[in-house]
Amino acid sequence: MSKINPDDPKLIRFKEVLEILKARKITQKEVADKMGIHEQYLSSLGKVRNLTFKLVERFMNAFPEFNINYILDGKEPIELSDKIKMPYTINASEPPLNYGQSSATAQKPLEIFILDEQNLSLSLFTGTNSAKEEGFISFPGSEYFDLIVKVLGEAMYPDVHNGGKIFLKQIVDRDVIFYGHCYLIHTVDLILCRFIDPDNNNHNNVVLRAKNAKYSQVSIPRKKILNLFLVKKVMNDHA
User: Fold this and answer.
1) What residues have CB less than 8 Å from 145, skipping those under 6 apart?
2) CATH 1.10.260.40 spans which residues of the chain?
3) What is the CATH number of domain 88-93+105-235?
């Protein structure tokens, strides 16, 4: 049994996140219930047990708005999704801002790419012109995203409409996958927007699942994933 370390930096940051939830009137019991564990388990951290990656993974599945990189490595921000403030503007003709700007109000421009699931190609990865850039978008909090993709197709309907935009954060460690969440997955063979589930028949694989039941799910080896982006926000155009 490993030695209990109450001064583990990861544990200290995890407790800081719990304090944020407490300040929002979310009790420790409510946190534990949402994680699917006993409240006493959280209370025992740093006393009779250490914080494990599996527990962090459970927490992130329950509260995906928090940044796992903050808990594990101390890389800010603590939260991601609460940085987005609407409204924002899209301007296809506007050139990107100067990334060297030092102004605190400067917003990072994000390129918008088009993913056509009929062609299964994205110019960002393939270097082809089959998926064109639609323009640039800039809004308060845009620096907390890495990419925006306009999805053509109805595989993720009604969560993502045909023509809806997904706001993405790149997952650097592809071993860190939150099952049941929506991702943009890039492999040698395909680029898809899908939920990722575990493959109970092969632990080296993951299952890519569409929201629309008309689309078949597919199992792929984890090692085939070249790029992985977590869908943090969705913007659908409503008539």
Assistant:
1) 110, 167, 168, 169, 232, 233
2) 9-78
3) 2.10.109.10
